[in-house]
Design goal:
Layout (H helix, E strand, L loop, with lengths): L1 H11 L4 H8 L3 H8 L7 H11 L3 H5 L25 H25 L1
């Protein structure tokens, strides 16, 4: 089940196996093997996959058909050339933008 879900999520995000492998810091062969259900990713990789695609591990494993937060999330494609050591800084900046947006909405509501 995880192979089918992984392939679907990857394709929906417009990623190649090479690109996803780069994002997860593993090799393309592993992604191919997971997608064909020839091997199962270790728990740490399952967690990374779920986090990247904003789904639950239960969804990946086929325990539920509800992907969780994925249904109301926008998936942004990060170029494969993006430095992996900068991902946490990118996430922090996105969180800042969310915070800033929420506060500007409150300020506008307070003024009316």
């Amino acid at each position: 089940m995880i192979g089918e879900r992984l392939q679907e999520l990857r394709k929906d995000a417009g990623l190649t196996q090479d690109e996803l492998a780069g994002i997860l810091n593993i090799n393309k062969h592993s992604i191919s093997s997971y997608e064909r259900d020839k091997s199962e990713p270790p728990d740490a990789i399952k967690i990374l996959i779920a986090g990247y695609f904003h789904v639950t591990v239960d969804y990946l494993l086929g325990v539920t058909d509800n992907p969780g937060a994925a249904s109301n999330q926008i998936v942004l494609r990060i170029p494969s050339s993006f430095p992996s050591d900068q991902l946490s800084e990118l996430e922090s900046y996105m969180n800042y933008l969310i915070y800033k947006s929420k506060n500007s909405c409150r300020t506008a509501a307070d003024q009316t």
